[in-house]
Amino acid sequence: MNAFPFSDRVVLVTGASSGIGQATAIAFATHGAKVAVNYCHNQKGSEKTVQRIRQVGGVAEAFYADVTKSGEVGKMVELVLERFGGRLDILVNNAGRWMSKTLLWECPEELWDEMVAVNLKGVFLCCRAVIPVMMRQKEGVIVN
Question: What pTM was computed for the model?
Fold first, then answer.
């Protein structure tokens, strides 16, 4: 069995500056993947994720993009491809927004719209940007 099943694989994890995204990015790196750490609002968190990956001997770089903006997602994917030798093997759509402790009937419409944009449109835009790359490679995995 390969001790590093993800060696030579490039993984893009959205929302990887904290929580599940950070843990996912670190886990992939621990198993040999090169990790693109996406962030939007938490640059310090993304830097911490990259630092933790490098501390365990992994390869990682932070990439800013608001996943609700097509142009930013496209640019991020281009930069990931440039940085990691033209490959993008795995996309983990982790970025998300939630109401936190807001009760549904007290949720402002703007917060609801932001949640839908990040949680649905963001997944769509990221998939749309990476699927052509994965088709050219004749392989790839997307985790939503």
Answer: 0.94
